[in-house]
Automatic annotation (TrEMBL):
GO cellular component: nucleus
Predominant location: nucleus
GO terms, molecular function: DNA-binding transcription factor activity
Designated name of the protein: BHLH domain-containing protein
Top-rank lineage group of the source organism: Eukaryota
Source organism of this protein record: Nymphaea colorata (pocket water lily)
Length: 23
């Protein structure tokens, strides 16, 4: 469960960084 949570956190950070680039 912890591993999955870490992966989700990485994905969220990645998506947020992409959104910043789009803006």
């Amino acid at each position: 469960v912890i591993g999955k949570a870490m992966v989700l956190d990485e994905i969220i950070n990645y998506i947020q960084s992409l959104q910043r680039q789009v803006e």
